[in-house]
Design goal:
This protein has about 425 residues and is mostly beta strands. Helix content is about 5%, strand content about 50%. It has 1 helix and 35 strands. The strands form 9 sheets. A 4-stranded antiparallel beta sheet has the order 4-3-6-7, with no helix packed on it. A 4-stranded antiparallel beta sheet has the order 10-9-8-35, with no helix packed on it. Strands 11-12-13-14 form a 4-stranded antiparallel beta sheet, with no helix packed on it.
């Protein structure tokens, strides 16, 4: 009899347990005002972006009859979040104009009910500033518009077939995109549709802008340079006799061209070519940086060094930087950033040269195909193509990382925002 009683008791307890568990799983997990923390959801999907000295928050609306509005929380990085503003229940977007450029801010949002407030959304830190980045992504075939810190997505444009190259010419707030599949050059301005400039231009290696002009130059594999006027949408082709390996815009408006083992100067007006400097025959110029005041840097990949030129004469060398493939000069602090490839180890590294010393700043876990040096804060942004991550490298060596928004980035450019 005792055994039967125990059996009935266990059966009853089991039934009660099943009912309780079923009841818990049947409860709505999307109710943000549920006092049960196990079933209370975070419905916000908070997104943060910036443009100049404005930070914009957007979130998914809360679907609840108890909703009365939203609270915006803000803090300087390192401080405690506090309520900064409130908006109505019909609003799911907020722009903060009371920010200081180059200052890290932390944001979050909560929802208000009749008597309750939800948990805060996962906080996000952003650094507003007067620049923005553009990135080209494989896989998604998209162009990414990023905020000043490079870690926040403002918009993604996915209308190109094979976007290969991008530049920000500093002209009419435009960016220019070269589509390899179409052999076409487009211009794009935020808030508008991309527009075709020229087509039937295949085998383009690189694009270079000219300061204060509507003219750009396209370096091609067939030993030609095509000059394109953005305003008139006209082109002019300049032919060379040797292999073209690199180019750069000169500080006085002309163009530097690396042909075979020679550095040539080409005026932007009559396209006259002048031989300026020669490197050893076994070397190849892979990148050129014009620092102004007759100071130049040449990256020599096979030689494993960067040559420093002053007034056309060799002034010195930067060695122990593996095989340099890209150099970018920052006139903010007179430094040179160097992207290099160590072929024996199969890794990419980034160095920074300043004051006659070079420092290894970062070693990539995967392929680093481009760098962009910010002209305002001196940071260097790069993207790991294989692992789909962005890295922001500070001049003091500090490194932060962020996911690359679902694509493999191979091209980066930074652009100053137009003045208000």
């Amino acid at each position: 009899m005792k055994q039967l009683h125990k059996y009935r008791t266990r059966t009853l307890l089991l039934i009660i347990l099943v009912v309780v568990i079923t009841g818990c799983y049947d409860r709505e997990r999307i109710n943000p005002f549920d006092p049960n923390s196990d079933t209370q959801a975070e419905p916000f999907n908070l997104r943060v972006e910036s443009s100049g000295n404005r930070v914009t928050l957007a979130w998914s609306p809360v679907d609840s009859p108890d909703l009365t509005g939203y609270n915006i929380y803000r803090a300087l990085q390192g401080n405690t979040l506090s309520k900064f503003a409130s908006v109505a229940d019909s609003v799911s977007r907020f722009t903060d104009t009371d920010v200081t450029n180059l200052t890290p801010y932390v944001y979050s949002v909560s929802a208000n009910g009749n008597e309750d407030e939800t948990f805060l959304a996962t906080p996000d830190t952003i650094i507003p500033g007067p620049t923005r980045y553009w990135a080209l992504s494989d896989g998604a075939q998209s162009m990414l518009h990023l905020s000043h810190d490079g870690f926040h997505l403002n918009e993604s444009i996915s209308i190109f077939i094979a976007p290969e190259l991008i530049i920000a010419p500093g002209f009419r707030n435009l960016v220019l995109i070269y589509d390899r599949y179409e052999g076409a050059l487009y211009w794009y301005q935020p808030g508008s549709e991309p527009s075709l400039i020229v087509s039937e231009l295949d085998q383009v290696l690189d694009i270079f802008k000219t300061a204060g002009s509507s003219k750009i130059f396209m370096l091609r594999q067939d030993s030609t340079v095509v000059a394109v006027d953005i305003e008139s949408q006209t082109t002019q082709t300049v032919r060379f006799s040797g292999k073209l390996t690199a180019g750069a815009v000169g500080s006085n408006g002309g163009l530097w061209i690396a042909e075979d083992n020679s550095l040539l100067w080409m005026s932007s007006g009559n396209y006259q070519k002048v031989r300026f400097y020669e490197v050893p025959e076994e070397s190849e110029i892979t990148s050129i940086a014009d620092a102004g005041d007759d100071l130049m840097f040449l990256a020599l990949r096979e030689a494993g060094k960067v040559v420093i030129l002053q007034n056309g004469n060799k002034e010195g060398e930067i060695t122990e930087v593996d095989n340099p493939v890209q150099i970018e000069y920052s006139d903010l602090d007179n430094s040179l950033w160097i992207r290099s490839y160590n072929s024996s180890l199969g890794i990419y590294r980034i160095y920074r040269y300043q004051g006659e010393e070079s420092t290894r700043m970062f070693t990539g876990a995967g392929s680093l195909y481009d760098i962009a040096v910010n002209p305002v804060d001196g940071t260097c942004l790069t993207a790991d193509y294989d692992n789909e991550r962005f890295y922001r490298i500070q001049p003091d060596g500090a490194v932060q990382s962020h996911g690359s928004f679902g694509g493999k980035v191979h091209e980066l450019v930074v652009q100053r925002l137009p003045s208000d």
